[in-house]
Every structure is written in structure tokens, then in C-alpha cells.
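Hey, resending since the last one bounced:
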Amino acid sequence: MIRPIFPRIRPVRAWLALLAIGLAGALVVVPSPCRGVNVKLETPRQIKEVAVTFDDLPLNGPDLGIDSLREMTAKLMVVIKSNQIPVTAFVNEVKLHKAGELEQRTAILRMWLDAGAELGNHTYSHPDLQRTDLADYELDVIQGEPTISSLMKEKGMKLRYFRYPFLHTGPNLGTRKAFESFLKARGYTNAPVTIDNDDWEFNSVYVNALTRGQTELARRVDGAYVDYFPKIVDFFEQMSSDVLGRQVRHILLLHANALNAAHMARIVAILKQRGYRFITLARALEDTAYSLPDNYAGELGVSWLERWAFSKGIKMRVAEEPDAPDFVNKLYREYNRPAPSSN
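The C-alpha cells again:
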């Protein structure tokens, strides 16, 4: 039984006050028409939405062979399907062409499609537009189309999304504008990113530790990543509030790797606990923020929130973005140090 909480308010007023309490949102206290009584009204909260995207398919990071790749992909697909997450996943076709494994690696992409994902072009060989001739870069994009276009056609879909490797959009605005014209002519839509992170760096150290039998180090990296991910979400939520005055329909960038396969369920849980619902990339791009001026060009591969800040004359906060801990940075550099020259 519910006890009456407005004994001194006439019935109609009491009913209206109870109705006000039922409204969803943030709590606001306003004066009651009766002395000594406050009615608690609630104003609507913004629903938070995120489109989940993956880069570097079929695999980001150390390649331990087709069996490992298949197992990793299956782990990701279980979480994606069970949570009905509408994923867009970006492919580097060069990674399909491992001796004797083209058919099996192409089957890995079919696993993504069968889980409901849409495939996008991430170039053939992951070149850097900062350091690649524009004509060569455009040819690399075209070279990255045949297999994914064919697979998408099998599902009744058309290849439509492109994502820049390293999130590098060109060394200057002239190069960037020229390439954007090329993308438009080929029917592509750029896939921006608002929540970026260093999962690729954690993953490199994590996989190397496992393959070397360093289980304690692997657990340490594992724990560091679990601590890191909520911090990066916090940071870009705050940036969205500061730059836009609200939460954009976020686009999260993850990489198709062993670390995320191990933690995808936890990543999903973190986002759900923060009130996010999962949406398609197409829905995210309907947000008017993605039509804002973006005048950034240069060395940084950064979130579009940073780019919008730059274009608005607001200080970019790249140096404030949460980083992987020092021990991860150090080991990543050690594992990926260029081999000494034989000359």
C-alpha cells in the first residue's frame, strides 16, 4: 500500500504532483503551493547512444595463425550477437592474402557479416595519408574493395563506408579536400570517431606476453586495460559536453584483436551501465554534429571532438587524453622496435 504523501493538498493537486514525480530525468526541487511542502519534479535526461566500430579486420596485432584468428573472431561474435550490437567493421584486404589461407581468412569476414555486421573499407594495406602520395593512396583504397564488395553483395548490401588509417586525414587541407572528392565520387561516406583509444597498444603487449609464457604480465596488462577503458569514455563524454553542450551520438573505435575479444562483454557492460544504447553507424551520422565544420589537417590522428574543438577555436585537449600506463608504453616500444639494419 502507498501512503498518501500530500495530506494537505487537494486531490487534483495531489494527483498532479504524483504525476510530476513519475517523469524521467534529473531531479529538480520546486516550491510547493502549500507551505512547508516541496514537490520533486524531474526533467527528461538525454538518451546516450553509441555506434560500435572495429578497425583492421581480419586482425589487429600479432598474427598467431588461422586457428587463433578464428577463435578470436568467434569470441567477439558471441558478444555482438547476444547483445544485438549493430557493428560496422573496417577491413584491410592485404591481411587476407596469407599464403594458402585466402579462403579461410575470407570466411572470417563472413563470420562478421553473419553476426549482422556491415563491412567498410580501411584501405588495402593501411598506408598513412600523411606520408603517401595522394594518387598512390587512392589506388590503395580501390585495391581494398574487391573482396569486401563481393561479400557485401552476397548479403544484399553495398560498400559505403571508409575509415582513414591512423585517423590521418591528410597533411594539409588541399590534400584532404582532394581525397574527400575522390571518396564522394566512389560513393563512400567517411566514418568519423568520437571515442578513440589505445587498445592496439595494450593488445600488442598482451599477446606478446601470452606467447612468451609471461602470464603475470598478461594479467597486469589485462587489469590496466580494464581500468583504462572507463577513463577514456569519461574523457570524451566530457569533451562532448564542453564542445557541443551535449552528448553526441558517439562512434566508438575498437580494434579486432585478442584483447578486445577477451574483454568485449565487459566493454558492453560498462557502456550499458553508463546508459548507452547501441545504434547503427548510419543513425549516429544523422546527428547534426557530424555536419559541423572540420578544418583540421596535420599530424594528429584524433577524435572528431578534437577536430570540432579546433574548428571552433577551442583548445584541443589531445595532451590530456588518458594514456596507456608507462609500463605498457615501454614494452610496446620494445616489442615493436625496428630490426637493426644488416648494412
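The CA atoms of residues 129 and 137 lie 7 Å apart.

Sorry for the duplicate.
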